[in-house]
Amino acid sequence: QVQLVESGGGLVQPVGSLRLSCAASGFTLDDYGIGWFRQVPGKEREGVSCLGKNDGSTYYADSVKGRFTISRDNAKNTVYLQVNILRPEYTAVYYCAVANTYSSVILCRTKREIERWGEGTQVAVSL
Prior knowledge:
By secondary structure, the chain is mainly beta. It has one helix at about 105-110; strands at about 5, 10, 20-25, 35-40, 45-50, 60, 70-75, 80-85, 90-100, 115, 120-125.
């Protein structure tokens, strides 16, 4: 079965940390560009961090630079998003996606050529 499954979300206090995981099955993640996106009700889904396809490029949205780290474990066919020093405004549903996109910037900013989305994992930042 071809799918992406996110995990690792939850309720976290401000300045806490989380590591989100996105596990792929039925295909090889290394063949794609990969991105993490987030969405809150009433707003457009936005790209927060992406890896380009085969080019090694990495993109972070300005709002998360220095706090988020994206990484890939090819042996586990999984991509991670380490989220540090959480803020209440990071509360959202976080989704991973794969795309036939070489540029991490284009993937995150335009969501071009996304082929598959995960179901999302909720992150809530609150006291």
